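Example S7 (structure tokens).
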């Protein structure tokens, strides 16, 4: 018997299930997402499930179930099922689907914390932390920065200086798989029944950390390429691992670029610590680009805001704007297409 409370089941989810047309069927949490099917954990065991046509038809990619989602399904066989409904989501981590301009991809649903993992060799990059953080806080998920491989040589003072503006919004945890005390500290961040998603480039040590936390080899880990110093995409699927008596961990494959979809400017200013200047801009709707009396630009010129931070602010805003306007364009095209189809249908042949 699995205790689904350990997997994060709670009263809110129970109410969502009650409100579903399919409340009479059993529910479970998606533990692994495959190409066309899902592994779903329930109280009585694990089922491999497919989606009904209804669940698939006319859906955007980001609306399809993903790892961490709670679903209702019909049992077909001893270990097979058909997903009838997905419960409403809270705190879902999205990113721009790579190779697209207007498609979101859901990485993990119902997550309380995101561990943004970077290794202290060549992977540390504060601009990448900022963009990931934006997507995380846009969904009210708590970010924690995990800097791995402290056993290797790195410039601690440089790292600390680069992170200064992220301050208390981003707790930082230094780890090494060769230092058990650092793993114990990491474990203390994870509350009972809480879901934590691990995100970062390939080779930074996400799966290694999960193995250390579980004190056994639950996931395969990979070597780093000698020529590029990068990982070789060892993990290929998003997968839930239950941490005994603690929380739910979600391992993800390495991500090259974390494309943003959140156009919440206030959140972006908060993340980058620009909000404290914005109030002093001459115009209430100041965009901080070239307006007279802009306190943000003044702070950049006075060296109070790092130039790199300000440049990333503009870049992330532009990317988010590009995504939002592409989505808008796409919807407009879809609308006019369905209008045309309707008109064609009305015409007598
Ligand atoms: N020196 C050192 N090596 C580590 C540490 N953590 C992980 N590694 C090594 O880094 C390599 C990659 O680790 P993985 O855990 O597979 O990395 P990953 O982030 O899961 O990579 P993908 O699954 O490809 O996204 C392995 O050879 C690990 O042994 C660490 O703390 N110190
Ligand atoms: Mg991995
Ligand atoms: Zn301004």
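Recovered sequence:
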């Amino acid at each position: 018997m699995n205790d689904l409370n350990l997997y994060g089941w709670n009263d809110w989810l129970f109410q969502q299930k009650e409100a579903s047309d399919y409340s009479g069927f059993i529910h479970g949490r998606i533990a692994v997402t495959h190409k066309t099917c899902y592994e779903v954990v329930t109280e009585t065991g694990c089922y491999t499930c497919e989606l009904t046509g209804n669940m698939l038809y006319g859906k955007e990619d980001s609306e399809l179930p993903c790892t961490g989602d709670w679903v209702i399904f019909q049992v077909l066989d001893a270990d097979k099922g058909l997903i009838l409904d997905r419960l409403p989501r809270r705190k879902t981590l999205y990113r721009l689907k790579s190779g697209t301009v207007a498609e979101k991809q859901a990485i993990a649903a119902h997550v309380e914390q995101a561990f943004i993992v970077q290794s202290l060799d060549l992977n540390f990059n504060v601009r990448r932390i900022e963009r990931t953080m934006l997507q995380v806080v846009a969904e009210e998920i708590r970010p924690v920065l995990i800097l791995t491989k402290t056993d290797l040589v790195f410039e601690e003072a440089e790292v600390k200086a680069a992170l200064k503006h992220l301050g208390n919004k981003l707790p930082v945890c230094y780890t090494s798989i060769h230092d058990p005390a650092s793993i114990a500290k990491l474990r203390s961040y994870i509350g009972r029944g809480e879901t934590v998603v691990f995100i970062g480039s390939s080779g930074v040590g996400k799966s290694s950390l999960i193995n250390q936390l579980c004190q056994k080899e639950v996931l395969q880990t990979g070597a780093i390429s000698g020529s590029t110093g990068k990982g070789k995409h060892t993990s290929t699927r998003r997968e839930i691992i239950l941490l005994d008596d603690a929380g739910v961990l979600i391992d993800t494959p390495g991500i090259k670029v974390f494309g943003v979809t959140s156009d919440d400017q206030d959140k972006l200013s908060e993340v980058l610590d620009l909000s404290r200047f914005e109030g002093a801009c001459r115009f209430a709707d100041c965009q901080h680009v070239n307006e007279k009396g802009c306190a943000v630009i003044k702070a950049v010129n006075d060296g109070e805001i790092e130039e790199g931070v300000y440049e990333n602010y503009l870049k992330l805003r532009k990317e988010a704007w590009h995504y939002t306007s592409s989505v808008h364009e796409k919807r407009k095209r879809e609308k006019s297409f369905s209008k045309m189809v309707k008109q064609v249908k009305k015409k007598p042949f």
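Notes on this example. Residues 148-149, 151-152, 176-177, 202-208, 221-224, 231, 233-235, 253-254 surround guanosine-5'-triphosphate (ligand 1) (CB under 6 Å).
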